[in-house]
TrEMBL record:
It comes from the Bacteria. SMART domains: HTH_XRE. One of its GO terms (molecular function) is DNA binding. GO terms for cellular component: cytosol. This is Cupin domain-containing protein. Pfam families: Cupin_2, HTH_3. Transmembrane segments: none annotated. Residues 7-61 form the HTH cro/C1-type domain. CDD domains: cupin_XRE_C (cd02209), HTH_XRE (cd00093). InterPro entries: Cro/C1-type_HTH, Cupin_2, Lambda_DNA-bd_dom_sf, RmlC-like_jellyroll, RmlC_Cupin_sf, TransReg_Diox_bact_type. PROSITE patterns: HTH_CROC1. Keywords: DNA-binding.
Length: 186
């Protein structure tokens, strides 16, 4: 872990001096310098007092960089096509088994010829158009603003039943991060 560098970066970004941290925490400047250069590992209680002085949650200091907030700008989204229907899929974010995608269904397009199943759970929000969602014996017509969720291990299918493009925001949660992109929708 690189806690010291995180502490230094936060301190500098907030224009806080080592002396100010030491005044608030009671720690010596030499000790704080060693913490920031990762030459010593402070106790949790000490980290908690440093976090309070920096006005950040202790958990933030303990997180690895890849566990912190990630940002995908609109122009940086990865876009792919899926299936024979060539659904446009914009990958919005992915983190620890959760994927968020924006899926554009052309008129009449669906997630496949037949219902399919895969690991995980899905939540959908219809942003534009009208879709038919089917899973087993359940089916529903959903319009803009409607949402639905299901366990993806049961065969399921989503079809655009409107005359125009339908757009659906889909969140997929899986136990592993290796689910294929083909398992995303519906």
């Amino acid at each position: 872990m690189d806690i010291g560098s995180t502490i230094r970066a936060i301190r500098k970004r907030k224009s806080i001096t080592i002396a100010q941290i030491c005044e608030e925490t009671g720690l010596s400047q030499g000790f704080m310098s060693q913490v920031e250069t990762n030459k010593t590992s402070p106790s949790i209680a000490t980290l908690d007092s440093i976090a309070k002085a920096l006005n950040v949650p202790l958990t933030y200091l303990l997180m690895k960089k890849e566990e912190r907030m990630t940002i995908v700008r609109k122009e940086e989204r990865k876009a792919t096509t899926s299936g024979s229907e060539k659904l446009k899929v914009e990958h919005l974010s992915a983190s620890k088994g959760i994927k968020l995608m924006l899926v554009e269904f052309p008129p009449g397009a669906s997630t496949g010829e037949v219902p399919h199943a895969h690991q995980g759970e899905e939540s959908h929000l219809v942003l534009q158009g009208k879709v038919l969602a089917e899973q087993g014996e359940d089916s529903a017509l959903l319009e803009e603003g409607d949402s639905f969720s299901w366990n993806a291990c049961a065969p399921h299918l989503v079809r655009n039943v409107s005359d125009g493009i339908s757009v659906v925001l889909i969140a997929v949660r899986t136990e592993t991060e290796t689910e294929s992109e083909a398992d995303f929708a519906g």
